[in-house]
Amino acid sequence: MKNNIKEEQQIQKNQEFLFDGINYKILLIGIAVIALGFILMSGGGSKDPNIFNEDVFNFRRIRLAPTTVLIGFGITIYSIFKKSK
Predict the structure, then answer these.
(1) Does residue 67 belong to any structural domain of this protein?
(2) Contact, 64 vs 15, CB < 8 A?
(3) C-alpha R_g of the chain
(4) Which of 32, 70, 74, 81 is the most exposed place for a label (fewest CB within 10 A)?
(5) Domain count, the chain
C-alpha cells in the first residue's frame, strides 16, 4: 500500500504542462486578437428599428473585423502546433 502511494506521488511530480510557456503566451495573444476582432464587429445598430443605419456595412465591420478574427485563429493554431524545445 505504501509503495503504491509513493509511485502515485512520483507520477504526480513527473507530470508536465502540455506546452511550453512561450506557447501559452502566443495562445493568449491569439485569444486577445480574436477578442479585438469581435469588439471591432460590435455596434452599428440603430436606436429606432424603423430606421436603417448604413454603419452596419462599413469597412471596419465587413472587412477589418473578420480579418482580425481569422488572424487571431491563425495565431492560436500556430501556438498549438509550435514545437516545444
Answers:
(1) yes
(2) no
(3) 23
(4) 81
(5) 1
pLDDT (tens digit, 0 to 9) for every residue of the chain, 85 residues total? 556 666 666 666 667 777 788 889 999 999 999 999 999 999 877 788 888 888 888 999 999 999 999 999 999 999 999 887 7
Cβ(44)–Cβ(61) below 8 Å: yes
32 domain-assigned: yes
How open is the CA angle 33-38-41, to the nearest 5 degrees?
130
- pTM value is 0.75
Sequence letter at residue 19: F
Tell me if 11 is assigned to some domain.
no
Q: Scanning the structure block, which residue is given the C-alpha cell 464587429?
A: 41
